[in-house]
């Protein structure tokens, strides 16, 4: 009989201890990881309509009747057909419960990466604006830190300000030119300004 009492006593203690952990479970459910998804050939496939094979041209007629097939830039010589990957809707809905999601593309459109470490982007050097490292604290450096000098990087002449000026300039050219590739508008950024 004492064994049964001990079991129930243990059960009660566990139950009481688990109540706050139930609240922790709710917090855990809301806690999400980050997920980066590539667009082209991962979530969808796009093609210039002019590049469709003869056997694929039937798809042009199906655009209005299918939810997974779209035309982009209708009537434009650069007209595209976009096909969503099967299960994409369900995948995004379910993944959204677990992750903060970001979609990117290294295709032809307007992707620029601003980073202080070029070695982490070996395949995407054309998309990279390498910025000077921001090191406010000494953290093992041999020279005096900004914090020790009681000053900081210049707001108007610092690295972020220079990157913004370059991006603004590229965006103005983007508005004026017929190009969707921001990489072409930045031109060798290392020679344009020192970040």
TrEMBL record:
<dbReference type="InterPro" id="IPR023214">
    <property type="entry name" value="HAD_sf"/>
</dbReference>
<protein>
    <recommendedName>
        <fullName>protein-serine/threonine phosphatase</fullName>
        <ecNumber>3.1.3.16</ecNumber>
    </recommendedName>
</protein>
<keyword id="KW-0539">Nucleus</keyword>
<dbReference type="InterPro" id="IPR004274">
    <property type="entry name" value="FCP1_dom"/>
</dbReference>
<keyword id="KW-0378">Hydrolase</keyword>
<dbReference type="GO" id="GO:0008420">
    <property type="term" value="F:RNA polymerase II CTD heptapeptide repeat phosphatase activity"/>
</dbReference>
<dbReference type="GO" id="GO:0005634">
    <property type="term" value="C:nucleus"/>
</dbReference>
<dbReference type="InterPro" id="IPR036412">
    <property type="entry name" value="HAD-like_sf"/>
</dbReference>
<dbReference type="Pfam" id="PF03031">
    <property type="entry name" value="NIF"/>
</dbReference>
<feature type="domain" description="FCP1 homology">
    <location>
        <begin position="28"/>
        <end position="195"/>
    </location>
</feature>
<dbReference type="InterPro" id="IPR039189">
    <property type="entry name" value="Fcp1"/>
</dbReference>
